[in-house]
Amino acid sequence: MIAKGMISLGFTPTLIFADICLIISIGIGLLIQANNFPNNVKIGLIILAGIFLIISISINAVSAVKRRNERK
Predict the structure, then answer these.
(1) What is the pLDDT along the chain (72 residues), one digit of tens a residue?
(2) How many helices (H) and strands (E) does the chain have?
(3) What is the C-alpha to C-alpha distance for residues 68 and 42, in angstroms, rounded to an integer?
(4) Which of 16, 26, 28, 58 suits 47 as a labelling partner, its CA being 20 to 30 A distant?
(5) How remote is the C-alpha of 33 from its chain's centroid?
(6) How many CB atoms within 10 Å of residue 51?
(7) Separation of CA 68 from chain center
(8) What pTM was computed for the model?
């Protein structure tokens, strides 16, 4: 039971998925820096990392707005 005034962390599957997407994005970025890939492979990996980053940011933004609206 949560005491009155404490905020629930709310580990939902969508937020866990957003965190996994962020970790994958960071991992791809580190992989690009560590290895010597051809330029076309680097561009593809950068696009893939960007997609994962956008997914993570959009899920977290929607979740934050939803929580803010619920508190009002």
Answers:
(1) 444 444 556 678 899 999 999 999 999 999 999 999 999 999 999 999 999 999 999 999 999 899 889 887
(2) 2, 0
(3) 39
(4) 16
(5) 20
(6) 14
(7) 19
(8) 0.79
